[in-house]
Amino acid sequence: RAGPTALVTPMRRVLRIGMVCVLVALPVSMLIGYLVAGTAGVWGALLGMGLAAFFFAITVGVALGTAALDVTLLGAAVLGSWLIKMVLLIVVLALLRDADFYSRPVLFVTLLLGTIGALVLEAVVVTRTQVPYTEPDLR
Predict the structure, then answer these.
(1) Which one, of 53, 60, 55, lies nearest residue 23 by Cα?
(2) How far is C-alpha 89 from the geometric centre of its chain's CA atoms?
(3) Are residues 22 and 55 in contact, defined by beta-carbon separation less than 8 angstroms?
(4) Can you tell me the distance from the alpha carbon of 96 to that of 93, in angstroms, rounded to the nearest whole number?
(5) Which of 29, 74, 78, 27 is nearest to 55 (CA)?
(6) Which residues contact 135 (CB under 8 A, 6 or more apart)?
(7) Rounded to an integer, what distance in angstroms lies between the CA atom of residue 17 and that of residue 31?
(8) How far is residue 89's CA from residue 26's CA, in Å, rounded to a whole number?
(9) pLDDT, tens digit, for every residue of 34-45?
């Protein structure tokens, strides 16, 4: 069985690179949102990117927090966090249902692109990170 380093090393890289990507993508998405829908587009982009970044951070945090556990428990934790994220998304969207300060299309597109970007980033970093398959027993 591979040790926790096999998961921790790439997930730390994913978190670091992901946060840099969010910091770069946020102003760009806010500018595009402004050009498309004015101030409401800025708020839509801010909400969409914020949700995508928050959900991305939850996934990485759960993976890092459960890295030392058995792979079955790790999988259950990640799946459970996915369920919690879906419930949170429904709650946030329900709370925003009647609000008119943001652009729904901009929020949707930003959330979609942010989520796809996070998934691609995770896949690329994890597959390109070189870590040992086993760790020596230091006892």
Answers:
(1) 53
(2) 13
(3) no
(4) 5
(5) 78
(6) 2, 3, 5, 6
(7) 22
(8) 19
(9) 999 999 999 999
Token pair 């978190």 in the structure block, residue: 15
Task: For residues 51-56, give the mean pLDDT.
Answer: 92
Q: If pLDDT is split at 50, 70 and 90, which confidence band does 1 have?
A: very low
**Chain Cα centroid distance, residue 95:** 21
Cβ-proximal residues to 121 (8 Å cutoff; 6+ apart), any chain: 14, 17, 18, 21
Contact 123, 56 (CB under 8 A): no
**Digit-coded pLDDT (tens) for 57-69:** 998 888 888 888 8
- Helix-helix angle 5-37:39-65, to 10 degrees: 170
Please name the amino acid found at residue 57: A
* Structure-token pair, residue 101: 């300060």
Of residues 67 and 56, more confidently modeled = 56
DSSP 64-78: HHTTTS-HHHHHHHH
**Predicted TM-score of the model (pTM):** 0.81
Q: Which amino acid is at 128?
A: R
